[in-house]
Amino acid sequence: MTAARRGPERLDLDALLADPATGIVVCCGSGGVGKTTTAAALGLRAAEAGRRVVVLTIDPARRLAQSLGLTELDNVPRPVAAVGSENGGSLDAMMLDMKRTFDDVVEAHSTPEKAAQILANPFYQSVSSSFAGTQEYMAMERLGQLRAEAEREGSWDFIVVDTPPSRSALDFLDAPKRLGSFLDGRFIRLLTAPARAGGKAYLKVFSVGATITAATLTKVLGGQLLADVQTFVAALDTMFGGFRERADVTYALLKEPATAFVVVAAPERDALREAAYFVDRLESEGMPLAGVVVNRLQTLAAPSLTGGRAAAAAEQLEETASVDGDGTASDDLAGLTAAVLRLHADLAEVSARHEGHVRRFVAGHPQVRVSTVPASATDIHDLDGLREVGAALAAG
Protein backbone atom coordinates (compact mmCIF):
# COMPACT_ATOMS: atom_id res chain seq x y z
CA MET A 1 0.00 0.00 0.00
CA THR A 2 1.53 3.30 -1.07
CA ALA A 3 1.50 6.41 1.09
CA ALA A 4 -0.80 9.22 0.07
CA ARG A 5 0.94 11.97 -1.81
CA ARG A 6 1.29 15.11 0.27
CA GLY A 7 0.07 18.42 -1.10
CA PRO A 8 2.12 21.61 -1.05
CA GLU A 9 2.91 23.16 2.29
CA ARG A 10 0.50 25.96 3.08
CA LEU A 11 1.86 29.51 3.08
CA ASP A 12 1.51 30.63 6.72
CA LEU A 13 1.16 34.37 6.28
CA ASP A 14 0.35 35.06 9.94
CA ALA A 15 3.68 33.52 10.95
CA LEU A 16 5.43 35.62 8.31
CA LEU A 17 3.81 38.84 9.52
CA ALA A 18 4.49 38.08 13.18
CA ASP A 19 8.15 37.21 12.67
CA PRO A 20 10.19 40.23 13.88
CA ALA A 21 12.98 39.18 11.52
CA THR A 22 10.71 39.97 8.57
CA GLY A 23 11.08 43.66 7.75
CA ILE A 24 9.93 43.89 4.13
CA VAL A 25 7.26 42.02 2.18
CA VAL A 26 7.16 42.58 -1.58
CA CYS A 27 3.90 41.65 -3.29
CA CYS A 28 4.68 40.98 -6.93
CA GLY A 29 3.02 39.45 -9.95
CA SER A 30 1.55 40.39 -13.31
CA GLY A 31 -1.08 43.12 -13.62
CA GLY A 32 -4.68 42.62 -12.53
CA VAL A 33 -4.16 39.75 -10.07
CA GLY A 34 -4.98 41.64 -6.86
CA LYS A 35 -1.54 42.76 -5.69
CA THR A 36 -2.81 46.05 -4.26
CA THR A 37 -5.60 44.42 -2.26
CA THR A 38 -3.22 41.71 -1.05
CA ALA A 39 -0.62 44.27 0.04
CA ALA A 40 -3.22 46.37 1.86
CA ALA A 41 -4.76 43.34 3.59
CA LEU A 42 -1.34 42.10 4.74
CA GLY A 43 -0.39 45.56 5.99
CA LEU A 44 -3.65 45.93 7.92
CA ARG A 45 -3.37 42.46 9.44
CA ALA A 46 0.25 43.07 10.47
CA ALA A 47 -0.64 46.43 12.06
CA GLU A 48 -3.50 44.90 14.04
CA ALA A 49 -1.09 42.21 15.22
CA GLY A 50 1.18 44.90 16.68
CA ARG A 51 3.58 45.78 13.85
CA ARG A 52 4.38 49.39 12.85
CA VAL A 53 3.60 49.19 9.15
CA VAL A 54 3.91 51.36 6.06
CA VAL A 55 2.33 50.21 2.80
CA LEU A 56 3.77 51.56 -0.44
CA THR A 57 1.34 51.15 -3.32
CA ILE A 58 1.97 51.86 -6.99
CA ASP A 59 -1.70 51.56 -7.92
CA PRO A 60 -2.88 54.72 -9.71
CA ALA A 61 -6.57 53.75 -9.32
CA ARG A 62 -6.54 55.00 -5.69
CA ARG A 63 -8.49 51.95 -4.52
CA LEU A 64 -6.17 51.56 -1.55
CA ALA A 65 -6.94 55.07 -0.27
CA GLN A 66 -10.66 54.39 -0.44
CA SER A 67 -10.34 51.03 1.28
CA LEU A 68 -8.31 52.55 4.10
CA GLY A 69 -10.72 55.43 4.61
CA LEU A 70 -8.29 58.07 3.33
CA THR A 71 -9.29 60.84 0.96
CA GLU A 72 -6.04 60.58 -0.98
CA LEU A 73 -2.57 59.08 -1.03
CA ASP A 74 0.62 60.70 -2.21
CA ASN A 75 4.38 60.36 -1.87
CA VAL A 76 4.27 61.05 1.89
CA PRO A 77 3.11 58.25 4.24
CA ARG A 78 -0.28 59.05 5.81
CA PRO A 79 -1.54 57.41 9.02
CA VAL A 80 -4.66 55.27 8.91
CA ALA A 81 -6.70 56.24 11.95
CA ALA A 82 -7.48 53.79 14.75
CA VAL A 83 -5.63 50.83 13.25
CA GLY A 84 -3.38 48.71 15.45
CA SER A 85 -3.29 51.11 18.40
CA GLU A 86 -4.69 48.53 20.86
CA ASN A 87 -1.67 46.26 20.29
CA GLY A 88 0.95 48.97 19.86
CA GLY A 89 0.80 48.74 16.08
CA SER A 90 0.21 51.40 13.46
CA LEU A 91 -0.50 51.63 9.75
CA ASP A 92 0.70 54.28 7.32
CA ALA A 93 0.00 54.22 3.60
CA MET A 94 1.38 56.05 0.59
CA MET A 95 1.22 55.97 -3.19
CA LEU A 96 4.36 56.33 -5.28
CA ASP A 97 4.74 59.63 -7.11
CA MET A 98 7.54 58.63 -9.45
CA LYS A 99 8.33 62.18 -10.62
CA ARG A 100 8.42 63.51 -7.05
CA THR A 101 10.71 60.64 -6.07
CA PHE A 102 12.97 61.32 -9.06
CA ASP A 103 13.02 65.03 -8.15
CA ASP A 104 14.00 64.12 -4.58
CA VAL A 105 16.91 62.03 -5.88
CA VAL A 106 18.13 64.91 -8.05
CA GLU A 107 17.87 67.43 -5.20
CA ALA A 108 19.60 65.10 -2.73
CA HIS A 109 22.59 64.43 -5.00
CA SER A 110 23.12 67.81 -6.67
CA THR A 111 23.88 71.36 -5.70
CA PRO A 112 20.82 73.66 -5.67
CA GLU A 113 22.00 75.27 -8.92
CA LYS A 114 22.52 71.94 -10.67
CA ALA A 115 19.22 70.60 -9.36
CA ALA A 116 17.31 73.60 -10.69
CA GLN A 117 18.95 73.18 -14.10
CA ILE A 118 18.11 69.48 -14.24
CA LEU A 119 14.51 69.86 -13.05
CA ALA A 120 13.81 72.51 -15.71
CA ASN A 121 15.26 70.42 -18.55
CA PRO A 122 12.60 69.13 -21.03
CA PHE A 123 14.38 65.80 -21.52
CA TYR A 124 14.52 65.23 -17.76
CA GLN A 125 10.82 66.03 -17.45
CA SER A 126 10.07 63.36 -20.04
CA VAL A 127 12.37 60.76 -18.46
CA SER A 128 11.08 61.41 -14.93
CA SER A 129 7.40 61.03 -15.80
CA SER A 130 7.00 58.60 -18.67
CA PHE A 131 10.24 56.90 -19.67
CA ALA A 132 10.06 53.10 -19.80
CA GLY A 133 11.20 51.61 -16.51
CA THR A 134 10.97 54.85 -14.51
CA GLN A 135 8.12 53.63 -12.32
CA GLU A 136 9.84 50.37 -11.41
CA TYR A 137 13.16 52.14 -10.77
CA MET A 138 11.53 54.78 -8.58
CA ALA A 139 9.59 52.13 -6.66
CA MET A 140 12.93 50.66 -5.64
CA GLU A 141 14.32 54.14 -4.89
CA ARG A 142 11.36 54.86 -2.62
CA LEU A 143 11.73 51.49 -0.90
CA GLY A 144 15.35 52.35 -0.17
CA GLN A 145 14.31 55.73 1.23
CA LEU A 146 11.66 54.16 3.46
CA ARG A 147 14.11 51.58 4.77
CA ALA A 148 16.65 54.30 5.58
CA GLU A 149 13.99 56.40 7.32
CA ALA A 150 12.77 53.41 9.33
CA GLU A 151 16.31 52.66 10.52
CA ARG A 152 17.06 56.31 11.24
CA GLU A 153 13.86 57.31 13.02
CA GLY A 154 12.27 54.02 14.05
CA SER A 155 9.07 54.98 12.23
CA TRP A 156 8.22 51.47 11.07
CA ASP A 157 9.38 47.92 11.58
CA PHE A 158 7.50 46.48 8.61
CA ILE A 159 7.26 47.68 4.99
CA VAL A 160 4.82 46.23 2.47
CA VAL A 161 5.45 47.00 -1.20
CA ASP A 162 2.82 46.73 -3.91
CA THR A 163 4.84 46.48 -7.12
CA PRO A 164 3.91 48.36 -10.33
CA PRO A 165 1.10 46.97 -12.53
CA SER A 166 3.49 45.81 -15.23
CA ARG A 167 2.53 43.67 -18.18
CA SER A 168 5.17 41.21 -17.00
CA ALA A 169 5.96 40.45 -13.37
CA LEU A 170 9.67 40.40 -14.21
CA ASP A 171 9.63 44.11 -15.11
CA PHE A 172 9.96 44.99 -11.43
CA LEU A 173 13.35 43.27 -11.27
CA ASP A 174 14.59 44.13 -14.77
CA ALA A 175 13.49 47.71 -15.42
CA PRO A 176 15.54 49.44 -12.67
CA LYS A 177 18.79 48.04 -14.02
CA ARG A 178 17.79 48.91 -17.59
CA LEU A 179 16.94 52.50 -16.69
CA GLY A 180 19.99 52.90 -14.47
CA SER A 181 22.24 51.57 -17.20
CA PHE A 182 20.67 53.97 -19.67
CA LEU A 183 20.97 57.06 -17.46
CA ASP A 184 24.59 56.49 -16.52
CA GLY A 185 25.63 54.28 -19.41
CA ARG A 186 28.01 54.57 -22.32
CA PHE A 187 25.34 55.48 -24.86
CA ILE A 188 24.46 58.73 -23.08
CA ARG A 189 28.15 59.53 -22.62
CA LEU A 190 28.84 58.91 -26.30
CA LEU A 191 25.75 60.87 -27.25
CA THR A 192 27.09 63.98 -25.56
CA ALA A 193 30.85 63.43 -25.88
CA PRO A 194 31.33 65.99 -28.68
CA ALA A 195 29.47 68.64 -26.69
CA ARG A 196 31.61 68.00 -23.62
CA ALA A 197 34.77 68.00 -25.74
CA GLY A 198 33.80 71.27 -27.39
CA GLY A 199 34.10 69.79 -30.87
CA LYS A 200 31.98 70.40 -33.95
CA ALA A 201 28.50 68.82 -33.99
CA TYR A 202 29.63 65.44 -35.23
CA LEU A 203 28.61 62.50 -33.08
CA LYS A 204 30.20 59.12 -33.59
CA VAL A 205 28.58 56.02 -32.19
CA PHE A 206 30.28 52.85 -33.36
CA SER A 207 28.14 49.75 -33.88
CA VAL A 208 29.23 46.82 -36.06
CA GLY A 209 31.71 49.08 -37.84
CA ALA A 210 29.09 51.69 -38.79
CA THR A 211 29.46 55.40 -37.96
CA ILE A 212 26.36 57.50 -37.37
CA THR A 213 26.94 61.23 -37.55
CA ALA A 214 25.25 63.84 -35.44
CA ALA A 215 23.43 65.10 -38.51
CA THR A 216 21.78 61.69 -38.91
CA LEU A 217 20.81 61.55 -35.24
CA THR A 218 19.46 65.07 -35.49
CA LYS A 219 17.14 63.92 -38.29
CA VAL A 220 16.01 60.91 -36.24
CA LEU A 221 15.74 62.53 -32.82
CA GLY A 222 15.25 66.15 -33.78
CA GLY A 223 17.77 68.88 -33.19
CA GLN A 224 16.05 70.28 -30.10
CA LEU A 225 15.75 66.87 -28.43
CA LEU A 226 19.44 66.16 -29.05
CA ALA A 227 20.31 69.54 -27.54
CA ASP A 228 18.07 68.83 -24.53
CA VAL A 229 19.74 65.45 -24.01
CA GLN A 230 23.19 67.04 -24.15
CA THR A 231 22.19 69.76 -21.68
CA PHE A 232 20.55 67.19 -19.40
CA VAL A 233 23.59 64.93 -19.25
CA ALA A 234 25.98 67.84 -18.81
CA ALA A 235 23.94 68.99 -15.80
CA LEU A 236 23.67 65.42 -14.51
CA ASP A 237 27.38 64.72 -14.87
CA THR A 238 28.03 64.75 -11.13
CA MET A 239 25.37 62.08 -10.64
CA PHE A 240 26.75 59.53 -13.11
CA GLY A 241 27.10 56.17 -11.42
CA GLY A 242 24.58 57.08 -8.73
CA PHE A 243 21.52 55.65 -10.45
CA ARG A 244 22.98 52.23 -11.05
CA GLU A 245 24.72 52.23 -7.68
CA ARG A 246 21.49 52.89 -5.78
CA ALA A 247 19.64 50.33 -7.90
CA ASP A 248 22.32 47.80 -6.94
CA VAL A 249 22.01 48.72 -3.25
CA THR A 250 18.24 48.25 -3.29
CA TYR A 251 18.63 45.05 -5.30
CA ALA A 252 20.92 43.77 -2.53
CA LEU A 253 18.28 44.83 0.02
CA LEU A 254 15.76 42.62 -1.76
CA LYS A 255 18.07 39.64 -1.28
CA GLU A 256 18.44 40.07 2.48
CA PRO A 257 16.82 37.49 4.81
CA ALA A 258 14.64 40.27 6.26
CA THR A 259 12.88 40.57 2.89
CA ALA A 260 10.16 38.16 1.77
CA PHE A 261 8.57 37.98 -1.67
CA VAL A 262 4.91 37.03 -1.96
CA VAL A 263 4.06 36.24 -5.57
CA VAL A 264 0.41 37.02 -6.30
CA ALA A 265 -1.45 35.29 -9.12
CA ALA A 266 -4.93 34.59 -10.39
CA PRO A 267 -6.07 30.98 -11.02
CA GLU A 268 -5.69 31.36 -14.78
CA ARG A 269 -3.11 29.88 -17.11
CA ASP A 270 -1.32 33.12 -18.09
CA ALA A 271 -1.20 34.55 -14.57
CA LEU A 272 0.19 31.31 -13.13
CA ARG A 273 2.70 31.09 -15.96
CA GLU A 274 3.92 34.58 -15.02
CA ALA A 275 4.04 33.47 -11.39
CA ALA A 276 6.11 30.44 -12.37
CA TYR A 277 8.56 32.64 -14.29
CA PHE A 278 8.88 34.94 -11.29
CA VAL A 279 9.37 32.08 -8.83
CA ASP A 280 12.12 30.65 -11.04
CA ARG A 281 13.75 34.06 -11.37
CA LEU A 282 13.72 34.67 -7.62
CA GLU A 283 15.31 31.28 -7.09
CA SER A 284 18.02 31.93 -9.68
CA GLU A 285 18.77 35.35 -8.11
CA GLY A 286 18.89 33.90 -4.60
CA MET A 287 16.00 36.08 -3.40
CA PRO A 288 13.82 34.97 -0.45
CA LEU A 289 10.47 33.65 -1.63
CA ALA A 290 7.81 33.26 1.06
CA GLY A 291 5.28 31.66 -1.26
CA VAL A 292 2.49 32.20 -3.77
CA VAL A 293 -0.99 33.60 -3.18
CA VAL A 294 -3.62 32.56 -5.72
CA ASN A 295 -6.45 35.08 -5.58
CA ARG A 296 -10.06 34.82 -6.73
CA LEU A 297 -10.31 31.05 -6.70
CA GLN A 298 -13.84 30.05 -7.62
CA THR A 299 -15.35 27.76 -5.00
CA LEU A 300 -18.72 26.01 -4.79
CA ALA A 301 -21.30 26.30 -2.05
CA ALA A 302 -22.33 22.67 -2.73
CA PRO A 303 -19.14 20.94 -3.89
CA SER A 304 -20.79 17.51 -3.78
CA LEU A 305 -23.08 18.51 -6.67
CA THR A 306 -20.90 18.22 -9.76
CA GLY A 307 -21.35 20.42 -12.77
CA GLY A 308 -22.41 17.46 -14.89
CA ARG A 309 -25.13 16.40 -12.46
CA ALA A 310 -26.37 19.97 -12.14
CA ALA A 311 -26.55 20.41 -15.93
CA ALA A 312 -28.35 17.07 -16.33
CA ALA A 313 -30.89 17.97 -13.64
CA ALA A 314 -31.49 21.37 -15.23
CA GLU A 315 -32.06 19.76 -18.64
CA GLN A 316 -34.53 17.28 -17.16
CA LEU A 317 -36.49 20.04 -15.44
CA GLU A 318 -36.58 22.10 -18.63
CA GLU A 319 -37.82 19.12 -20.66
CA THR A 320 -40.51 18.34 -18.10
CA ALA A 321 -41.67 21.96 -18.04
CA SER A 322 -41.86 22.12 -21.84
CA VAL A 323 -43.94 18.92 -22.07
CA ASP A 324 -46.20 19.16 -19.05
CA GLY A 325 -46.10 22.86 -18.30
CA ASP A 326 -49.42 24.67 -17.91
CA GLY A 327 -48.17 28.03 -16.64
CA THR A 328 -48.69 27.28 -12.97
CA ALA A 329 -46.54 28.41 -10.07
CA SER A 330 -44.90 25.00 -9.97
CA ASP A 331 -43.72 25.50 -13.55
CA ASP A 332 -42.23 28.85 -12.59
CA LEU A 333 -40.45 27.20 -9.67
CA ALA A 334 -39.14 24.47 -11.97
CA GLY A 335 -37.80 27.10 -14.38
CA LEU A 336 -36.11 29.00 -11.56
CA THR A 337 -34.59 25.81 -10.19
CA ALA A 338 -33.28 24.90 -13.64
CA ALA A 339 -31.68 28.35 -13.98
CA VAL A 340 -29.99 27.96 -10.58
CA LEU A 341 -28.72 24.52 -11.59
CA ARG A 342 -27.36 25.94 -14.87
CA LEU A 343 -25.55 28.65 -12.91
CA HIS A 344 -24.12 26.02 -10.58
CA ALA A 345 -22.95 24.00 -13.57
CA ASP A 346 -21.18 27.05 -15.03
CA LEU A 347 -19.53 27.85 -11.70
CA ALA A 348 -18.49 24.21 -11.33
CA GLU A 349 -16.81 24.38 -14.73
CA VAL A 350 -14.91 27.52 -13.72
CA SER A 351 -14.00 25.97 -10.36
CA ALA A 352 -12.67 22.82 -12.02
CA ARG A 353 -10.61 24.91 -14.44
CA HIS A 354 -9.17 27.02 -11.61
CA GLU A 355 -8.29 23.97 -9.53
CA GLY A 356 -6.68 22.32 -12.55
CA HIS A 357 -4.45 25.32 -13.19
CA VAL A 358 -3.42 25.47 -9.52
CA ARG A 359 -2.69 21.73 -9.45
CA ARG A 360 -0.45 22.03 -12.50
CA PHE A 361 1.42 24.95 -10.93
CA VAL A 362 1.91 23.00 -7.71
CA ALA A 363 3.11 19.94 -9.63
CA GLY A 364 5.72 22.10 -11.35
CA HIS A 365 6.80 23.81 -8.11
CA PRO A 366 6.23 21.29 -5.30
CA GLN A 367 8.64 23.14 -2.98
CA VAL A 368 6.68 26.41 -3.12
CA ARG A 369 4.23 27.23 -0.34
CA VAL A 370 0.80 28.19 -1.65
CA SER A 371 -2.19 30.03 -0.22
CA THR A 372 -5.48 30.29 -2.10
CA VAL A 373 -8.11 32.98 -1.57
CA PRO A 374 -11.74 32.43 -2.62
CA ALA A 375 -13.29 34.88 -5.05
CA SER A 376 -15.13 37.67 -3.25
CA ALA A 377 -18.76 38.29 -4.08
CA THR A 378 -18.28 42.06 -3.74
CA ASP A 379 -15.59 44.67 -4.33
CA ILE A 380 -13.27 45.49 -1.45
CA HIS A 381 -13.99 49.08 -0.46
CA ASP A 382 -13.35 49.45 3.27
CA LEU A 383 -11.31 48.20 6.23
CA ASP A 384 -13.77 45.41 7.03
CA GLY A 385 -13.39 44.11 3.48
CA LEU A 386 -9.61 44.18 3.82
CA ARG A 387 -9.89 42.33 7.14
CA GLU A 388 -11.89 39.60 5.44
CA VAL A 389 -9.26 39.30 2.72
CA GLY A 390 -6.55 39.14 5.37
CA ALA A 391 -8.38 36.37 7.20
CA ALA A 392 -8.76 34.44 3.95
CA LEU A 393 -5.07 34.92 3.17
CA ALA A 394 -4.13 33.59 6.60
CA ALA A 395 -6.50 30.65 6.32
CA GLY A 396 -4.99 29.75 2.96
Overview of the molecule:
With 396 residues, the protein is of the alpha/beta class. The protein folds into 3 domains: 13-172 and 243-298 and 375-395, P-loop containing nucleotide triphosphate hydrolases (Rossmann fold), CATH 3.40.50; 185-240, no CATH class; 307-353, no CATH class. Helices cover 55% and strands 13% of the residues. It is built from 16 helices and 10 strands. It has helices spanning 13-18, 35-48, 63-67, 98-108, 112-119, 122-130, 134-153, 171-183, 186-197, 214-221, 223-235, 242-254, 269-285, 307-324, 329-364, 383-395; strands at 24-28, 52-57, 78-79, 90-95, 158-162, 205-207, 210-212, 259-265, 289-297, 370-374. The strands form 2 sheets. An 8-stranded mixed β-sheet has the order 3-4-2-5-1-8-9-10, sandwiched between helices. Helix 13 links the parallel strand 8 and strand 9. Helix 9 crosses helix 11 and helix 14 (307-324) packs antiparallel against helix 15. The model is unreliable at 1-6 and 195-222 (pLDDT under 50).
